[in-house]
Amino acid sequence: MRKGFRKAFSGGGTVRGLYMAFIFLFLYAPVVVLVVFSFNAAKSRSVWGGFTLEWYQKLFTNTEILSSLRVTLIVALLSSIVATLVATVTCIGLDGLGKRRRAFVMNLTYVPIVNPDLVTGISLMLLFVFMQFQLGFVTLLLAHIAFNIPYAILSILPKMRQLDRNLYEAALDLGAKPTQAMVRVILPEIMPGVVTALILTFTLSIDDFVISYFTSGAGVSNLAITIYSMARKSVNPQINALSALMFVVVLALLLIVNFRSNREMRKPKEEKSR
Predict the structure, then answer these.
(1) Please, what is the average pLDDT of the chain?
(2) CB 215 within 8 A of CB 128
(3) 255: closest CA among 197, 181, 194, 200?
(4) How far are the Cα atoms of 29, 111, 125, 134 from residue 130, in angstroms, in the given order?
(5) Which of 5, 7, 93, 175 shows its CA 20 to 30 Å from the CA of 203?
């Protein structure tokens, strides 16, 4: 049976094409329905009442949503910048460690990534309560920085591994100070990874709900929490419009990250071909 299954996929492209079409249909059909019904004139979630932009107009005049958008963008921007800075310094430090200590630190880095968001959110909430921090904007920002750092490290570390170790010593031999060598030689070489980490962490921060829900406290909410609160109260078509916009923004950022990653992967191959 396994051989027959493998033969079917390794043969013509029809089976593989149908299989991939089914997978993408299964994954993105709900999103397509969401986007389509964000233009629905009727408030019903199942009846099409005609095309309208009313919900998008009301969305941009809703003070609650605009306030949540402001919090989301501020937290995402600050957390991505801080997480990327911390990850950059960490990757430079990891490059100077021995294999065993580096492996130990990397194993610790993987824990927040494989850990369920629910566990991370509750753990951070208990930590803030134990330290007698008032849950609010500061705890929300700290939580986003905490879960963004591992992703930033994993984005920058591959560029550090591709870096020629002799560049730093060469810069020192030519008279540069250690700080100058880091800023003018090492940092430009790993800058593609830094930019990728910045975009990725910004995207993850915008998209987060579970950790934000447990660490934001009363009076502070991002877009994900606002959507959840609006959905619990009543059927509000503005939710469809807001979710559609969030999907488009996140998709655009992810496409930029993938485009940059593919371009960086093609560079060594093009240089070798020359």
Answers:
(1) 83
(2) yes
(3) 200
(4) 44, 22, 9, 10
(5) 93
Reported as a pLDDT band with limits 50, 70 and 90, residue 91 is confident
Residues facing 51 on adjacent strands: 40
> What domains, with CATH codes, occur in the chain?
2-37 (no CATH), 54-273 (1.10.3720.10)
Reported as a single tens digit per residue, the pLDDT across 126-183 is: 999 999 999 999 999 999 999 999 999 998 988 888 877 777 778 877 777 878 788 7
Q: Are 224 and 209 in contact (CB under 8 A)?
A: yes
Q: Are 39 and 52 in contact (CB under 8 A)?
A: yes
First-to-last alpha carbon distance for the chain, in angstroms, is: 46
This prediction's pTM: 0.79
Least confident piece of the model among 42-51, 66-75, 128-137: 42-51
Side-chain-side CA neighbours of residue 228 (13 Å):
11
User: How do residues 194-218 score in pLDDT, each as one tens digit?
Assistant: 988 998 899 899 889 999 999 988 7
Residues 192 and 187: their CA atoms lie apart, in Å, by: 9
Q: Report d(CA 31, CA 126) in Å as an integer.
A: 34
Report long-range pairs for 219-223 (Cβ below 8 Å, ≥24 apart).
219/136, 220/71, 220/136, 220/137, 220/140, 221/68, 221/71, 222/68, 222/71, 222/72, 222/75, 222/140, 223/65, 223/68, 223/69, 223/72
pLDDT in tens, 2-22: 555 455 555 556 888 888 888
Phi, psi of 51 (to 5 degrees): -85, 140
